[in-house]
Amino acid sequence: MIPAAFDYVRAENAEQAISLIGEHGDEAKFLAGGHSLLPLMKLRLAQPTVLIDIGRLTDLSYVRDAGDHIAIGALTRHMDVENSPVLHEHAPLLAHAASHVGDPQVRHRGTIGGSIAHADPASDLPATTLAMGATYVAQGPNGTREIAAADFYEGFLTTALAADEILTEIRVPKMNGAGWSFQKFNRRAQDWAIVGVAAWRSNGDSGVALVNMGSVPILASSVSSALSGGASVADAAEQAAAEADPQPDLNASAEYRVHLAKVLTRRALDAASG
Amino acid sequence: MNEHYTLNVNGAEHEVADAWLGESLLYVLRERLGLSAAKGACEQGECGSCSVLVDRELVCSCLVLAASAIGRAITTVEGLEPSGGLTDVQTAYLEAGAVQCGFCTPGLIMATHDLLDRVPRPSEMQIREELSGNVCRCTGYGRIIDAVQQVAVARSQVES
User: Fold this and answer.
1) Which of B122, B106, B68 minimizes the C-alpha distance to A37?
2) B106 touches chain A (CB under 8 A)
3) Would you list the domain boundaries of chain A?
4) CATH number belonging to the domain at A63-173, selected among 3.40.50.300, 3.30.465.10, 3.10.450.10, 2.30.39.10
């Protein structure tokens, strides 16, 4: 498995990365940790002719307390998200979900920004940050803009990022002691989720998002609406798949995925309410 | 498109001449530097056969470009014991019967050294979690876990 030939250029900073992608256009892709893009390239499912390596932009690797939210640099690796004391204190759901991505080798290289920009609906962190009401920061030739996670995922592996934009930061609201849970159903610990659920609950508020229940990560707003309308956890969880459009694959039929989403949502909400 | 570059592998600088920077680190180690301990299997970052240390972190060398490895310190099984003998981990794998076909063994040896350097007395659950990126299709893992525990015990006895 050898990828199709490509030219390699290394960006020294975000501005240079944006200028390089502007120069090379649609044929170029950013390379961060490489753990989503390189497997696809080896299968020839992606054939960029230029790779712009942003993997050494260490100034985009950080976790900072920014008052009402935590700011995470896009190049922060899963292992650093998993082990961040700031996230353990203020956004434990995200740190916990990051510890369930792949295996140790994957978490040493893969980055939170790479995972979100790749937008695989089966990935853990797009859905988790969606449930948390995250905001993503994109930088382009004309400056930066904020994109709500709820507006970011447009289709399978397709996001609101423009061709000449780079994801630079992920902002997650502080959880302020909210209950939370991440439920991941798979056959082996290091596998992709067959279905996953990220959920939090605090007083009347809640957020629930689903992994691998459609072409994009799914915000299960019907569950939150039911809860805020006074429904029990069991009744609210029955709404888990209302926004979903699960597809069958070798692991599970669409019907089984719907069943899993309801069961895992109930478990997640029970844990978050405890 | 081809370049000349240098890789630091097992403490020595290795010249790579007239090669594409888009080759994987695994390919360069095996095919250009003749270091064949790291194995190529899934090529997708799933199986761990190609595990090496890059700047003291365990990674799948099949998903690291040669270009990304330039300027980093790379360690392979060949560099674990400069004298050419076996490390305590390799010896324990042999004695515990943790090696059957042997294809996954180099990756597991790297993962075990990495684990025990960071966590000298891991629990069984920690061992299973830390080695979860290294797939073995022969042993059922029981004797691999035995081998890791043997090394942990032996090292703690040397210290005490």
Assistant:
1) B68
2) no
3) 7-53, 63-173, 179-273
4) 3.30.465.10
